[in-house]
Amino acid sequence: MASKVSHINDPSARLKALCEYGSQVEVDNTLPTKLYFRSGRELIRMANVYLDEANYESAFILYSKYITLFVERLPSHPGYKSSPPPDLAEIKKKMKTVFPLAEEIKSKLKKRYIEEQREREELEAKRQAKVEAENARKRAEEEERLREKLAEEEKIRNESEEKWCREQEERYRELQLQEQRRLAQLEIDKDKDNNISGLNNERISVPSGNLDFIPNDLSNYMPPTDIGITTIPPVPDRDLKKNLTISDSSSPQIPVVNRDSKPNFDHFTSIGNFGGGSCNIRKVVVPTSIFSQFLKVAESNTNRNTETLGILFGKLSKNAFHISDVFIPKQHGTPDSCDMENEIDLIDYQDKYDLITLGWIHTHPTQTAFLSSVDMHTHFPYQKMMPESVAIVCSPKFKESGVFRLTQNGLNQIGSCKQTGFHYHQKEPPLFEQGEGVELVEGTSVRFTDGRK
């Protein structure tokens, strides 16, 4: 199960966090010690349930809180030394079982945490290997893509260079032809000039005799060869093409590629968020039949305009409380109050069926369903001992019922109030509210036991 320490990987650190939470116990010295002895029994019951369900973290926390409560905290309570000897003897006896049991669970948790850490490391190694394999695949794909890109660029470059060379060769041949045609034309024109000159001029008589006046080297008398002659560029060497920079706008521009680079709230009965809990208040399941059943039991008192009360008991299962029993103790009531008598009957009943106290239920014969100042003071110790405890109020006159809890403001106000009887309390912020985390279910019966008979 997920827990508050599941994010801590180190097994020793996880156990330390669990032990620290198990030692978080506070005792209210204004409450009688008998309430803590009763809650101690319920701590053991809840811890045993968690243990049976193999919810070892929750079981360890409650066993640890039991030890902390009775070994470290409650002995400092002013009324502890005057506690009934049977209660003290019971605690001493239970400690002989709880201490070794807590150590045994701690050992199991340590082994489990170590195994979970090993599994996490294996999973992480597999995940890392998978990531590395995927990265390698992506790198190979990128390198292949780059090779293909470079090959395509090289192909384009070669084609461009070949095209340039062909154009230059074609241009050279064209210039040669042009020059040949020009020279041929010059010869034709020269012949024409000679013919015309021979026809129109008198014959020139060449003097006889020695021709030594004609110089042997006529080069100084030859016209400059660059007159009227176009210089033909040499055919480019194809080996030079790798040094070319193509600037012709008609040719594709080849990008320069660097081949060396690659793309590259806490309570002593609470388990908090441990053991699979998502919050400190566990869900309370209330059968809807409880309202009609209780009103039937209280009917005779209601007809006499007298309140009736009962104690809610239940079981813990799968981290939720299920109300299963209502015990009607001996009591005396008035139109607006009711007090319980002979509390020992209540404890005997609870121990007989191994039950957990989950609050109380009472009627308002002539009023609506709400918590009066007396009701809030009555409910305070229930909720102080067990945060999930609820107060159910049934109004037969107005045919309404409510499942209530004190708010945090209500706990603070009522806990510090020393007044008795009916008295005023501010209404804002609210002192009580409909029970959060209460689930009403149909089709489930509740066992009613009338201790008044």
From TrEMBL:
Could you state a single Gene Ontology molecular function term? metal ion binding
Provide the cofactor list for this protein: Zn(2+)
Note the Pfam families from the entry.
JAB (PF01398), USP8_dimer (PF08969)
TM spans, by residue?
none
GO biological process annotations for this chain's record?
protein K63-linked deubiquitination; proteolysis
Residue numbers spanned by region Disordered? 123-144
Span of domain MPN: 284-412
Name the Gene3D superfamilies for this protein: Cytidine Deaminase, domain 2, Phosphotransferase system, lactose/cellobiose-type IIA subunit
Matching PANTHER family: AMSH-LIKE PROTEASE, FI19924P1
Quote the protein name from its UniProt record. Answer: MPN domain-containing protein
Could you tell me which species this protein originates from? Patella caerulea
